[in-house]
Amino acid sequence: MTDSTNTRIDTADILAIDAAVSRSSGSAQFGITQDGFIAKPFARLLAEKLALARELFGNDLDLSSGSAIRKLLEVSALEDARTWAALTSMYDNNFVSTATGEALSCLGEELGIGRPFLEAKGKIRLTLVETLPDGITQLSIPRGARLLTLGGHHVATNESVVISAANPERDVAVVAFYPGSEHNLNPSRAAADSTFPEKIDRWHRNDPMLNSLFEAEQLAGTPLIQISHTISLSGGELQWDDNRYRQLLLQAPRSLWTVEAIQTAVSLIPGVRQVQVRDSLGGIDLSQAIFGTFNFMDRLFSSERDLAKPYSFTVLVGPTPAAIWDGPDGLEIAIQSAIEDLRPISIFPKIIKAVEVGIGVKAQLVVRGLPLPTGSRDVINNSTSAGALKQRLIARLQGYIDSLSFGEPVRASEIIWALMSEPGIVDVVDLKLLRFPPNFDSINLQATPVSSSSSDRYQVFEQGKNISLQSTEIPIFVDDPAQLVIL
């Protein structure tokens, strides 16, 4: 039989079709099999039709490529191939691992997990409106800084910016903290009392990342940065893509009071980046020497519980940069509320915030084929096109580091791969990974204390070195475009 992509059918292919098979609509190796649903290829369908035609009309029937009967049989075989393809899609849509689109959404609804919505995104403008206090030359707004509207909507910056007297105005990307179309904030939509409840116009006073801004405003005695929101946020009506949603459904539990049930519930809370439920005292005690050497019901699977010691489990949470851990609307309270109906009676969780380790990337880049200006290195790196290139590279690095789990090392090879995947980057020179805070072993306790602006506040890993993390640590990316230098 010829390959399925080849429509040329020889006489040997026709003779190879068994007479009994030519009178049937299928065969053992096609349809639902132990390996799944196997569609009958077009070449097989056409060969069967040609064999059946010879059996009905005789061996002298003209089935050459130019005959009218051959053309009719080819059209019929093509329609049958389309039917087989539709049957394949129908079969695949019955399983979470292979379903797509609306079929995957229906399977998720059966599991009680609807397809989640994305967070709305947009831009605001930050403007320095007053003179900075003495001793302060610039204000840094980190990625994840929280903002509010009059109506109580929560928004966070999606990039880090620096505002100074030399650069007093910056357009900043923002993202809604909560998903859904109700957070497509329209700054011009007025309420009945003539206010604008969806306009982003204030900072979240409980955000610890904004303490330096609040301290500077306290010294100045007046607000320093004006927030301008003129364009609506968009994208909140969109939902998760199939791959992300499928991963969630495959991890979803099929019963309550399980580690998986708690982990799934916590992972869907806005502000949670990674979660790991550790139940060291639960399950079968595989460490016992007698395990596997006795019959079921003859012995206990594990030792008896110490009634004087309360049973608990640990929930290790890696928050997003925009999450606020403490406070009445903090992430810790939200996690406790989500777990309350899932945990077993009298068994309480220990909710632990993961240790966040800042990861920076310092490298020199060789660029070819991109419209960069000519001149000195400073002129090139300060240009608009270079800034756009660095933002694309930062997005790639952030995507890689955000995908890492607890204790997973930051690999220099993966960083190089992420940078080299950007079109126009032909080489990465002198790559160094930066860690903040440094490892305790790397701190020189005999050295003279340095100022907070010194480079000694972070640890430099030379070229080719990975950054190893502990099991309770999670990396966060520090997006500093100045560390990426175009040669």
3D architecture notes:
The protein is an alpha+beta fold. The chain contains twelve helices and 18 strands. The chain has four domains: 82 residues, no CATH class; 108 residues, no CATH class; 101 residues, Alpha-Beta Plaits, CATH 3.30.70; 132 residues, no CATH class. 27% of the residues lie in helices and 21% in strands. β5 and β6 form a beta hairpin. The longest helix is centred in the N-terminal third of the chain and has 25 residues.
The biggest beta sheet, please?
Answer: 6 strands, antiparallel
Residue-averaged pLDDT: 85
What class do helices, strands and sheet pairing give? alpha+beta
Major sheet strand order? 9-5-6-8-3-10
H and E order:
HHEEHHHEEEEEEEHEHHEEHEEHHHEEEE
Give the CA-CA distance, first to last residue.
58 Å
Shape label: globular
> How many discrete domains?
4
What is the number of E strands?
Answer: 18
What's this, in brief?
The chain is α+β, with helices and mostly antiparallel strands. It has helices at about 10-15, 20, 40-55, 70-90, 100-110, 210-220, 240-250, 260-265, 330-340, 375-380, 385-400, 410-420, and strands at about 30-35, 35-40, 120-130, 140, 145-150, 155, 160-165, 170-175, 200-205, 225-230, 270-280, 310-320, 350-355, 355-365, 425-435, 460, 475, 485.
Question: Could you give the topology of this structure?
Answer:
Layout: H1 11-15, H2 19-22, E1 31-33, E2 36-38, H3 42-57, H4 68-92, H5 101-110, E3 121-128, E4 138-141, E5 146-149, E6 154-157, E7 161-164, E8 169-176, E9 200-203, H6 211-220, E10 225-228, H7 242-251, H8 259-267, E11 272-278, E12 312-319, H9 331-340, E13 348-353, E14 355-367, H10 377-381, H11 384-402, H12 412-420, E15 425-436, E16 459-461, E17 473-477, E18 484-486
Parallel strand pairs: 12-13, 14-17, 14-18
Antiparallel strand pairs: 1-2, 3-8, 3-10, 4-7, 5-6, 5-9, 6-8, 11-12, 14-15, 15-16
